[in-house]
Specification:
eight-stranded mixed sheet, Dihydrodipicolinate Reductase, domain 2, globular, 2 domains, Rossmann fold, alpha/beta, six-stranded parallel sheet
């Protein structure tokens, strides 16, 4: 297999982003789009110059489609992934992998039984600042990491973003899954597995939703390091950044989606060389899709797969349980 023909399930903004990203991947070609809203599928298919399938079943029955990208609301991921795996299609599923650990496990069983490959869209693995921070920590630039803080904060959902499924944790996974799957995965990719989670939070401004719009989440890593995630929809001064402290130095990253030169690193003797280079940094969506396509063609596990997707969901579930119980909780 030297190239992959791909179908896209979900024609909303995320689906369009994935389609545009896939267009830049040399060994892949998008051939069809489908969506529960046929008009939306027709519009995106027309814009992209591909076919619009009439249903998911119709797409999965096609022999000319090797793999599918799933960009639908999170609560639909499990059923679509299982059906796709049974049809022999390789899978790229947007984050969160699913809205429960049980669904994640069902998806993993389905792809394993079918012998297909599954990648999860935790795209922050491929952004420049995330990559550089992780690289520096793993290279021992600040010694052993002992504390990591990440914040991703904003105001309430905008009017165009308020759709019924997004306001229900059972359908979206709530902010800790739909948004902060990225931050949870970033912290885990830097500091390792999480032993327990302690969290506090509540509903303050986004009162039409049924999950916390503010969460202060402490992650206790198996390594002994401590992490802190500030997730918020209640701030007028939003941002996304943080800091990591080690036994021999610290790294501050005030703009996780910014340029590499925004990173500040110091040890006890002064500044640490960041290691800025002149190579072009690939678009993160293109990079994650290329990594998935390469894994499918080369018949190996995707770099970011089911284990990572499940871990992000399990940690978020533990945080929700901790908010409700007032006690530390272990990820399942």
């Amino acid at each position: 297999m030297s190239s992959i023909q791909v179908g896209l399930i979900g024609s909303g903004p995320m689906g369009r982003d994935l389609a545009n990203g896939l267009a830049e991947v040399e060994r892949a070609r998008l051939v069809a789009v489908c969506d529960a809203r046929q008009e939306s599928a027709d519009k995106l298919a027309d814009d992209l110059g591909v076919e619009a399938a009439g249903s998911i079943d119709e797409m999965l029955e096609r022999d000319d489609i090797d793999a599918v990208m799933v960009a639908t609301p999170p609560f639909t991921h499990c059923d679509i992934a299982i059906a796709s795996a049974k049809a022999g299609k390789h899978l790229f599923v947007e984050k969160p992998m699913a809205v429960t650990v049980g669904d994640c496990d069902a998806m993993s069983r389905a792809v394993r039984d079918a012998g297909v490959h599954l990648a999860i869209g935790l795209v922050c693995r491929y952004y420049a600042v995330h990559c550089k921070v992780r690289e520096m920590v793993h290279a021992g630039k600040i010694g052993r990491p002992v504390f990591m803080q990440v914040h991703r904060t904003s105001g309430p959902w905008g009017e165009s973003q308020v759709v019924p499924w997004r306001l229900r944790r059972a359908q979206s996974g709530g902010s800790l899954m739909e948004i902060n799957a990225h931050e949870i995965d970033f912290m885990r990719s830097v500091c390792g597995e999480v032993a327990s989670v302690s969290a506090a939070g509540g509903i303050y401004l986004q009162t039409e939703g049924d999950y916390p719009d503010l969460a202060a989440v402490t992650l206790n890593f198996e390594s002994g390091a401590v992490g802190f995630l500030h997730s918020s929809h209640v701030t007028a001064v939003g941002g996304c950044g943080g800091q990591i402290d080690g036994t021999e130095g610290s790294i501050r990253y005030p703009l996780l989606f910014g340029e590499l030169d925004t990173i500040e690193a110091r040890d006890w003797n002064g500044p640490i060389e960041i290691g800025l280079d002149d190579r072009e940094i690939e678009d993160a969506v293109v990079a994650e899709l290329a990594a998935w396509i390469d894994a499918v063609i080369e018949d190996r596990d995707a770099p970011v797969g089911a284990v990572d997707g499940r871990a992000a969901v399990a940690i978020a579930e533990a945080a929700y349980r901790s908010i409700e119980s007032g006690r530390p909780e272990e990820p399942e």
